[in-house]
Amino acid sequence: MRGAWERLRRCWTLPDASEDVRALLLNRQLRNLFRVVPWYVASNCYTGGGVLLVMWPFLDATLAWAWLACLVLVHLGWGWHAVRCARRQQRQGEQSLRHGDLYASMFWCALCALAAGAGIYLGAPLAASDASRLLLSAYTPGLIATGVLVGITTPLVSFTWLAILTISACLMVARLDFLAQGMTVTLLCCYAVMLSSALLFASHLFVRRIEAELAADRQRQIVGLLLRDFESKANDWLWESDCGGVLTRPASRLAQMLGLDADLVGKRLDTLFAPHALLALGGEAAVGPAALRKRLGGGRPFSGVVVEAMVDQQPRSWSLSAKPLHAPTGEWIGWRGVGCEVTDARLREAEALVRERKLHHLAHHDPLTGLPNRRAFLDAMEVEREGPHAVTMIDLDNFKTINDSLGHAVGDQVLCAVARRLQQGCRPGDLLARLGGDEFAVLLRGLPATDADAEACARLEHLLDVLRIPEWVNDYRVDVRASIGVSRVVDSAETGELMRQADNALYAAKNEGRDMFRQYSPRMSERLRERLALVSDLALAAHAGQLELDYMPLRAADDLRVRGYEALVRWRHPVHGRIPPMDFIPVAEESGLIVPIGLWVLERACRDALAWAPDTLLAVNVSPIQLASPSLVDSVMDVLQRVGLPADRLELEITESVLARDPAAARAMLQRLRAAGVRIAIDDFGVGYSSMAQLRELPFDSLKLDQSFAAALLQEGARDMTRSIIASVVQLARSMQLTVVAEGVEVQEQLEMLRGLGCTLLQGYLFGKPRPIAALMGETAESERA
Q: Does residue 647 or residue 258 have the better pLDDT?
């Protein structure tokens, strides 16, 4: 029962709400009641008088006047109570009414219902005519229903009215004697129940509506409080304007931020900010007063429009959002919006953009020279795949020597100087890039369609001339030369193919003498394919038994007896036959195959040397690539140990170019070999970086004069000077206890002169061509039999 009563109470009150909310609900209920009561009082007095007039012939005059006076007085009392409470509510506010006013209204309602009910009860038996009985039958239900509707927002008042009049009507029916008496009472009760249900439902809807309104009012109060606090403390601000952007609501917070007068009403919003963007982020359309004016004229909600202004010498940014305001008629009357400060976010975005641009620059430019890198160059070629252009590859001829001899720091300065030279030599429309190391590339643009080749050649010759000018770096004179390969851009040519063609042309320029340019031709690709095939075949040559050794004898100058042999590698290709060393040795050095081939030569020669006389020397050439390997000493000693050849019978021949690359590393390597007992000879002395200081500092045992000296002895104009040079070298070598070997002896005259100049050993075709080990051993056997 308690639960049912609580649910019933919710139809006219809010039991769980606070006292203030319940009081506010009561005032709303009573306000609606008191608005209707005066009209209802007048209506009841009028209808009551009409009924009395109709029934006047059947009534006692005194009793009729008494009833009418009673009815009018109690209704006037209810009306006076309603008017007095309504005026008090207007004066004192919505919460001025109390439950006492409700109970008083119930009291007056009860008096009015009793007066009306008494008239019905007393007048019904006196109705003698059909007209009077019909009027009374219509008056009674109408009086009950209209009274319920009057108190529809105050069910207690309506229930008071309904209960009294329903009971009065039922008593009236009970007094009368007619056939459908029981059915009539039943109908009156059913009507009462239906009216009660409808009353409770309508009252419940009213309570729910009032509850929603109160919740909305509280929400508006909270929002208003938050907005006021927001405007007073936050960096954001609210604004209202007309359709043209003229402010209609004070924006004190905005004025404070901008350092302007507090009263901004009447000023255009877009004129308060900088006329252009202060933080350029790029690609932003909704920035600045122009973008704001465009949005203000559109009549549609917008957001994200950025405006900026200088405040205290610092740029500040706000993001504006707004919705259009409409009058009750639907007419567009202005804007209401908010400005949110986004300064920090835009500053971070600007910093991120700077970092992004820096990363993009680093990704597409060389950090040393500042030139576009390979990626940027290839991207540019992808864009310009058609037209009269040319792709050039540039490689510095002697940069490695400069870098090794003067150091990497000087090498970097040389690269920067070369980059500046190339930029000066290029046309304004050309694209210069550094591909890496000492390789550069130029995209020659704007070549004439009729004579593109001649124009490209002229430009490349100019670049070579610019590079030939000596450069001074850290007091060093640096002479830079370059080889250039060029490929014409034909329609729809693939970037990779163009780069490959230019690279092939560059390779051709290097092979043909360097310090020149070569234009690509299909023959170059064919030669490169042949070279690649040669490298592939050379990698298998040692394992396939295609490499052979020939031996060139070293004879004593005094008695021409054989003192040793120099091992020379030969390649017998199964398809191309015997390939000269000058054709495959450079390929082996470039490809790195010289290291395994050199080890094979060393081991094979040491095994062959075991068959010679114990005092016969074995000379083996060592490539600069081999000498640069840290494992050379260990490899040599491992071979000697496995083969069983004494270390003092092995002499390793190195060229002077090794000494120029890394003297300190070369000295350490040679000292380790010399300490192990291996003899060291400097080969081709006199044609490279010949230095007496090197002979004094490095652990050499022999000095081999280049064959050009022996050839010069046969030349009439150079003979005397050559004899003087050889004599000086021999004298110096003897003072350093070095053996002097003369190469290239081909005639008897050379032999006599070299012998007379003091050379220790002689080598050349005068004593026979290089021969394989089998022929050499056969000759040795015949000499022994003879």
A: 647
Q: How many residues does the chain have?
A: 786
State residue 785's pLDDT score.
43
209-222 pLDDT, tens digit each: 877 777 777 776 66
For 173: left if phi > 0, alpha if psi spans -120 to 50, otherwise beta; the answer is alpha
In CATH terms, 234-350 corresponds, of 3.40.50.720, 3.60.15.10, 2.60.120.10, 3.30.450.20, to 3.30.450.20
Q: What is the pLDDT of residues 266-321, one digit of tens each?
A: 888 888 888 877 776 766 667 888 888 888 888 888 888 888 888 888 888 888 88
Look at residue 695 and tell me whether its pLDDT is greater than 50. yes
Looking at residue 131, its pLDDT comes to 62
Q: From its phi and psi, is residue 287 left (phi > 0), alpha (psi between -120 and 50) or beta?
A: beta
Residues 6+ apart with CB under 8 A from 411: 399, 402, 403
Q: Give the pair of three-digit tokens for residue 409.
A: 């720091």
Across 422-431, b (16+ Cβ under 10 Å) vs e yields beebbeeebb
Q: Is 566 helix (H, G, I), strand (E, B) or coil?
A: strand
Of 617, 623, 602, residue with least CA distance to 666: 623
- Average pLDDT taken over every residue of the chain: 81
Distances, alpha carbon 211 to alpha carbons 94, 202, 207, 362, in Å: 15, 14, 6, 66
- φ and ψ at 488, to 5 degrees? -75, 140
What is the Cα–Cα distance from 16 to 168, expressed in whole angstroms? 37
Distance CA(617)–CA(605), nearest Å, equals 11
pLDDT value of position 441: 92
**Amino acid identity, position 520:** Y
Q: Which numeric CATH code is attached to 365-520?
A: 3.30.70.270
- Return the pLDDT at 67: 81
What single letter denotes the amino acid at residue 491? D
Assign 700 to helix, strand or coil: coil
Residue 96 CA, chain-centre distance (Å), reads: 66
Nearest Cα to Cα of residue 142 among 112, 169, 171, 114 = 169
Q: Distances from the Cα of 508 to the Cαs of 393, 400, 511, 513, in angstroms?
A: 12, 19, 5, 9
Q: What percent of the chain has pLDDT over 70?
A: 87
**Are the folds of 234-350 and 540-785 the same?**
no
DSSP string of 197-239? HHHHHHHHHHHHHHHHHHHHHHHHHHHHHHHHHHHHHSS-EEE
Question: Residue ranges per domain, the chain?
Answer: 2-216, 234-350, 365-520, 540-785
Predicted pLDDT at 605: 93
Are the beta carbons of 670 and 638 closer than 8 angstroms? no
Q: What pLDDT, on the 0 to 100 scale, is given for residue 609?
A: 93
Determine the distance from the C-alpha atom of residue 672 to the mean position of all C-alpha atoms in its chain, rounded to a whole number.
54
pLDDT (tens digit, 9 = 90+) per residue, 156-189? Answer: 888 888 888 888 878 877 777 665 767 777 887 8
* Phi, psi (rounded to 5 degrees) for 263: -90, 105
> In the structure, how many helices (H) and strands (E) does the chain have?
27, 21
What element of type H or E holds 517?
strand 517-519
**pTM as predicted:** 0.49
**Is the distance from CB of 90 to CB of 32 less than 8 angstroms?**
no
Cα–Cα distance between 506 and 500 in angstroms, integer? Answer: 10
β-bridge mates for residue 621, sequence order: 653
Per CATH, the number for 540-785 is 3.20.20.450
459 pLDDT exceeds 80? yes
